[in-house]
Predict the structure.
Amino acid sequence: MYVAIHYGREPSVINVKKLKKRFGPITAVDGVSFSAAKGDVLGFIGPNGAGKTTTMRMIACLTRPDEGTAEINGFDIWNDSLNVRRSIGYLPENTPLYGEMTTLSFLRFIVDIRGIAGGDKERELERVIDICSLGEVVHQSIETLSKGYRKRVGLAQTLIGDPAVLILDEPTDGLDPNQKRDIRSLIVNMAQDKSIIVSTHILEEIEAICNRAIVINRGRIAADATPEEFRKQGGGRIDEFFETVTRGSE
């Protein structure tokens, strides 16, 4: 079963073309292709080990594909990986941060890595601190922050340099309901002028923040449509649709 809805509102910012990745005898990603435009919040859902994170790592130039390619903001991951990296803000699943640093010192470190200097440096820090509501904890060490604030710091570092694309791997994992709501609101607000990929195993999150979702199963795209279409195909329930497309071939 495969559902696909094609979009043509805006020019594509992300174009993924037949990506493949093998780890020994295992094909983790098997010919994945899709596109996304500015304003899209594209959900990646699928069983554990389906290939979601590997796909995102290839798009972000952290893992080299065995076959296929991707263009991010007009730059090819093979021929122009530096500009691809400049076009992407990437948040890994475990939000790796330096716990001994303060929020401000960590974000200054990321601003330096991004090559932002002079007056632009302070303006960029103020901008991301304001967007992510970090003003109360800028002088606090990261290791003392709550999970919700650590996620906010992780999101803030993805925004430095104002990248066209955000890739967020399980951004609300482990958060309480209030923290989840806050992070989801941030993502929706950031989507106005960006293209965002959000990997999640929380089906309600697809309905809450995504205007489109892709189900990946066994390294392949099993469905690509809106949450509304998923509900329709599942008799009113996204979980029913998800189970059908991920277990139908077992």
In short: The mean pLDDT is 92. Residues 62 and 95 are 15 Å apart (CA to CA). Strands lie at 12-23, 26-37, 41-45, 67-72, 75-76, 88-91, 165-169, 195-199, 212-217, 220-225. The chain has two domains: 1-87+164-250, 98-162.
